[in-house]
Amino acid sequence: MSVFLEELLGDKLVTGGGEEVDVHSLGARGIALLGLYFGCSLSAPCAQLSASLAAFYGRLRGDTAAGPGAGAGAGAAAEPEPPHRLEIVFVSSDQDQRQWQDFVRDMPWLALPYKEKHRKLKLWNKYRISNIPSLIFLDATTGKVVCRNGLLVIRDDPEGLEFPWGPKPFREVVAGPLLRNNGQSLESSSLEGSHVGVYFSAHWCPPCRSLTRVLVESYRKIKEAGQKFEIIFVSADRSEESFKQYFSEMPWLAVPYTDEARRSRLNRLYGIQGIPTLIVLDPQGEVITRQGRVEVLNDEDCREFPWHPKPVLELSDSNAVQLNEGPCLVLFVDSEDDGESEAAKQLIQPIAEKIIAKYKAKEEEAPLLFFVAGEDDMTDSLRDYTNLPEAAPLLTILDMSARAKYVMDVEEITPAIVETFVNDFLAEKLKPEPI
After folding, report:
1. pLDDT in tens, 134-162
2. What is the pTM of this model?
3. CA distances (Å), 313 to each of 323, 354, 369, in order?
4. What's CA 9's distance to the chain center, in Å?
5. pLDDT tens, position by position, 370-383
6. Which pLDDT does position 73 carry in this prediction?
7. What is the pLDDT of residue 40?
């Protein structure tokens, strides 16, 4: 356990009171679950979460008081161990040390030291954190993600009765009646043998309404082609009236609005952090892609359904948002010729497949996304924003959250050059340039 924790968190953590705690000591204290709390002192929602999380943390650890530093310091190891143990580590995006100190002072859990800015950024990228506050739970022994949306755990299970909140099969989480907009009710067992799209959306969200219009046509085309496919709408609407109005536009199924517990469990299962989100599942209930929105917009004829992920994507307006999800390798070819773009994809695909397979074996997301960028207005804007040279071809790694870029400007790009570039990046041998 301590090896994984030290690789993830480093050697030292600090308490709210400023005391250092050796990371390897966490293993000796029987920690079963590790929560990573991503936040910032300047965020009002983070301040609200900290208050509710403190009470939750105290109940689960069996602490008699959940005041600053309670149970987190060296003295806590001598206390009797409760049946299960939870530790939380605050991962801050604060840029001001005094503000950070004032914020962590009231936390009963641990925090990454302020100076560990590089490690904090690696954690944000590793778990693709896109907004704050975020709370994810990891198995402290294996490092596997147990729950991607800990905020819903605090709301739905404040006493920790379902600890350790491990992922359950889709079939079990979705079990129960599903509705059609004509009032007909079907049992979830009717989904057996079908690909399923789990659609998290709401009427108040303009991008959701835009996607829904496209998705209705995609659904129709897939069904007309004889494919076994169903979509389940999981509403984030603010009233049942809004839900009914929005659902009336949809030809598929929905979890009843009144079944808030089931809607919340589905959000927890897939760690939904924003809408619209379309998760596409195979007939066994395993995730094919979390990027259903991008796939639907890029493939309006649904020729590539059920949209198995490609190792290398062609950068487009619809998938450019993924550049903000973590480090991305982008090979700029500056050509409108489809043949040149395809050749560029084939050039970087072997290393992309190797990296993806390596991390999939560890049940982790790959630390890089891979793109080929042609010549269009969006690519020109990206080059201008990141201040890249005009050379083509140009091999880069862009890390938007760190505002950093890595550039390989050579006359000829070969598979060996790509592999060396990627491996050196992952080994942190490359020197970043600012964006």
Report:
1. 999 999 888 889 999 999 999 999 998 88
2. 0.82
3. 11, 16, 8
4. 19
5. 999 998 888 999 99
6. 46
7. 96
